[in-house]
Amino acid sequence: MTAVASPPLHERLQAAAAALSGRRTESLFDAEPHRTEQFQCRVDGLVLDFAKHRLDDAARQTLLELADARGLLEAFSALINGEKVNTSERRAALHTLLRGTRSETQPELFALVEDTLSRMSDLVAAIHSGDATGFNGLPFTDVVNLGIGGSDLGPRLICEALRQADSPLRAHFVANIDPHDLDNTLLGLDPARTLFVICSKSFTTEETLSNTVRARAWLQAAGATDDTLGQHLIAVTTQVERAGEWSVWPERCLPIWDWVGGRYSLWSAIGISIPLALGWPAFSRLLQGARSVDQHTATAAPADNLPMMMALLELWQTHYLKTDTHAVLPYAQRLARLPDFLQQLTMESNGKSATPEGQQVSHHTAPILWGSAGTIGQHSYYQLLHQGTRSFTADIILPLSADEGDHTARRALAAHALAQSRAFMIGRSAEEACRLGAERGFSAAASRQFELTGNHSHSFITMNSVSPESLGGLIVAYEHKTFFLAVLLGINCFDQWGVELGKAIASEMQALLRGDKATVASDPATLATVRAWQDANPTP
């Protein structure tokens, strides 16, 4: 069994958590007059305010000692220097290289990145200028990204967050193997003016290739021929020859490398839908914002290191204050897809139960992450947050300015974000509950139903605006938080063997559904469902 800290630090953190268990967070502001200034980290307009965590300065200092003891800055240096931090697959995790964060040890790899960016830029320019057209010579108006997981969630988030009325192309995303996903997306699109991006490193991803088959048929039914089909296709893959068998021209095949994990890949050619939809300058600014937070993370001391502090806070809350889940609550409709993206980033990365050495961990690893855009969640699950029995932490995210939208409505949105933060901290006291109950004719005992305990630790994250730079920086902050937490937990955040198991069993289920029972072992409950599905879907 492994522990999250060496015995002296672990015991001190346990003692600190016990001492703070009966404290009200608001009382810490009186005890620590400089708390507001000290409990902040900043980088390029991105501000992490963690003053409303149940954490005093002594506990914070102990966490910073833990960061040094675990060598977090050294671990990050190993990451960007291309060491084999993905231990189970014996390879590097060099997603930082994709946005220009590199050391002197990777000149050849960086040359590949620069070449790919140049090819992407040329292809985007040709499509936007109308030099590259559809089968009938008309310029493209729409791009449909066919991918799943990291080949979908990151580019989808960016395109939806930064979309403008004058965006060069309309971007659409299809991930589900359920045919309704593609069918609904293609409604109203003109096949002659629709471009498809096929994202599959191996060019064997079942969901993506299933949708590709149907997308090609849609184009052919509209008049695309074998000679012109390739005008509508771009592939991001390592398998150029295999992509060619699907009518993708070699010059339209962009590389993705084995040192780039899917959930860290939006900065690569996997993200080509981003500049196609938003323009190359927006993509460059996105990379610039990401690179800036890389540089901050590599050089800032732990006390000022924004992603590192996010990881230390999550360790503190999950392992010492025993919170169950973490809610991400962006108060910006443009960031509505952020919780979806972060679910994969954090839970696929740190949803582990053993160390790289095979030791069973004796603690929980990643918390369950969930959330949605405010103020929508206030009318669904916030009731549980305020008065339910589940423990949680949260990130409330608020862009400070916007270039569009009604000023009064944006002020109301900010007021709700601030109000929920205040309510998470102070709740409603027993005295206030009694007063409220008395006004409604309830006894003192019955008035307890109006009480809200508050004291829920959470961070308040502000960003100047939802710009390419700030969004790139925000995403990278969560990327590095995820890595630092893995180092603290002693696990590998770059593999996903649980995902691979599901894929393997799915192929066996395909055989069962086809009726090939002899080759597949199963259980009675599964077989009963198979028979029900076969009855509802007779073989054509």
Q: Overview of this structure, please?
A:
By secondary structure, the protein is of the alpha/beta class. It has two domains: 7-69 and 304-489, Glucose-6-phosphate isomerase like protein, domain 1 (Rossmann fold, 3-Layer(aba) Sandwich), CATH 3.40.50.10490; 95-284, Rossmann fold (3-Layer(aba) Sandwich). It contains 20 helices and eleven strands. The protein has helices at 7-20, 25-31, 35-38, 57-69, 72-80, 107-129, 153-162, 179-186, 206-221, 240-244, 273-278, 280-299, 306-320, 338-350, 382-387, 407-426, 430-439, 468-489, 497-514, 524-536; strands at residues 40-43, 46-49, 142-146, 170-174, 194-199, 233-236, 253-254, 325-330, 368-371, 392-399, 458-463. A six-stranded mixed sheet has the order 1-2-11-10-8-9, with helices on both faces. The protein has a five-stranded parallel sheet with strand order 4-3-5-6-7, with helices on both faces. Strand 3, helix 7 and strand 4 form a beta-alpha-beta unit. The longest helix is centred in the N-terminal third of the chain and has 23 residues, at 107-129. The model has no long low-confidence stretch (mean pLDDT 94).
* Radius of gyration over C-alpha positions, nearest whole angstrom: 25 Å
Instruction: Work out the helicity level.
Output: 40-55%
* Main sheet summary: 6 strands, mixed
Query: What is the CATH superfamily classification of the largest domain?
Result: Glucose-6-phosphate isomerase like protein, domain 1
Q: How large is the share of residues in beta strands? A: 5-15%
- Which term fits the overall shape? globular
* Strand line-up in the sheet with most strands: 1-2-11-10-8-9
Task: Flag low-confidence runs.
Answer: none
